[in-house]
Design a protein that fits this description.
The chain is of the alpha+beta class and 416 residues long. It is built from 9 helices and 25 strands.
Length: 416
């Protein structure tokens, strides 16, 4: 099974689909004055604007449904409101509180402030990605990103006091990304970040637009968004996905070698021979040839439990159930192996896995971190992304360079 880093991505987005108008005013909490040029947008869509000189904004002909409305202004804490446009409401008055970065950084352990020169390349690989598309993706104001390294827990965090301005020439988008949190844990290899993207179509000639549309289709098919939309429609098999359970079973060989090690170690110790202890396991000096000793060392460094994946597939009905007219619930125990069978894995992913041969499918793992079902909507958005852990292909692929807005619709001929 893939050893690629684990990933949690928090992407907040559009929930719905059909027309109302909506308006409001943005004020500063400290001065009570209107905030002109505050950014107001619906996350992970192409719908957004800035406030006028009176701090006012107004959206017309919005789809009916529930949205995450994001309000941001440099120096003030970002606000996110859940808005149901199907329900008429009076204009909102949104009061923005000043943000103090120093107050947010609660010092509970030694930490060091560091800058782009040291961690920039690492951040780009984790946030933008290492795919071929990432080479055509640029953060124009990358130097606004600051880093903080926590010594004891071996964590790296990143933050920015203004939106990141991203140009994705692979997919033809300009993205204004409000980065809220970014953390990589070097002990667990788990990445998670929170943020709010606003997409804008890039201008281009006919050939460029045709190329962008083709690349968007390629990024969409096999993506987590495509899988969730297929799950919602209960068409995972039809759309090329094979789903299997992953079970854990004890590593009996490790148990056997440990038993030999303990017995041999006791015998050797009684004779005054050396016992070697490492951070990972106890390695005893065996009375054996070098090849056998190396084998024992390798087995002792294996995990205590191993994966077992049955050949039999499961269907969407086994893991998803209807919750209401507009959502399904995703729930499963253990972990899932999700294989997209209609495309090879990218060469860059094969390299990251340190394998020589590309697989003719794209394998990902899903693990639930919540005991409650995950709500999945028709556009592929799922509620509380922190409840789902990704590993394998999707951990590599689901980055900014390949991200599509939730209002993206592929051509009818490739859609379900």
């Amino acid at each position: 099974m893939s050893k690629f880093i684990l990933l949690i991505v928090f992407s907040f987005s559009l929930l719905s689909v059909s027309g109302q108008s909506f308006s409001g005013r943005v004020l500063a909490a400290d001065s009570k004055k209107p905030l002109a040029l505050a950014s107001v947008f619906f996350s992970n869509t192409s719908v957004g604007m800035v406030t006028n000189e009176n701090g006012e904004f107004s959206f017309q002909h919005l789809p009916a449904g529930t949205f995450d409305l994001v309000i941001s202004f440099v120096g003030y804490a970002t606000q996110v409101l859940s808005i149901n446009t199907a329900t008429k409401s009076a204009p909102l008055e949104i009061v923005m509180s000043p943000k103090s970065r120093e107050l947010e950084q609660v010092v509970v352990e030694p930490n060091v402030k560091e800058k782009w020169n040291k961690w920039g390349d690492f951040f780009l690989g984790q946030f933008v990605g290492n795919s071929a598309e990432a080479g055509k993706c640029k953060i124009w104001n990358a130097r606004v990103i600051q880093f903080r390294r926590f010594v004891n827990s071996r964590r790296l965090t990143a933050y920015a006091d203004e939106p990141l301005l991203i140009e994705n020439k692979a997919l033809g988008y300009r993205i204004k990304y409000q980065l809220e949190n970014f953390e990589f844990n070097f002990r667990t290899n788990i990445l998670y970040y929170t943020g709010y993207p606003l997409f804008e179509e890039m201008e281009g000639n006919t050939a460029e637009k045709r190329r962008w549309e083709k690349k968007r289709q390629e990024c969409y098919l096999g993506s987590l968004m495509h899988f969730m939309r297929s799950l919602y429609r209960k068409q995972t098999s039809k759309n090329g996905y094979a789903i299997r359970n992953i079970y854990l079973y004890p590593n009996y060989e490790k148990q056997r070698v440990k038993s030999i090690a303990v017995q041999t170690g006791r015998a050797n110790n009684s004779k005054g021979k050396q016992i070697v202890q490492t951070a990972d396991s106890l390695v005893y000096v065996f009375n054996c040839d070098p090849d056998s000793l190396e084998y024992y060392r390798q087995v002792l460094h294996q995990p205590d439990s191993l994966d077992w994946v049955p050949q039999s597939e499961i269907t969407a009905d086994n893991i998803a159930f209807k919750m209401d007219a507009s959502s399904v619930g995703l729930y499963f125990k253990n972990r899932l192996l999700v294989s997209y069978m209609r495309a090879m894995e990218p060469y860059e992913f094969t390299q990251s896995e340190r394998r020589r041969k590309q697989m003719d499918r794209q394998d990902s793992q899903l693990k639930m971190l919540s005991t409650e079902p995950i709500v999945v909507l028709s556009n592929g958005r799922y509620a509380d992304p922190s409840s789902l852990l990704l590993r394998g292909y999707w951990a590599f692929w689901e980055k900014m360079a390949t991200m599509l807005p939730y209002d993206y619709e592929p051509p009818a001929e490739i859609e379900e």
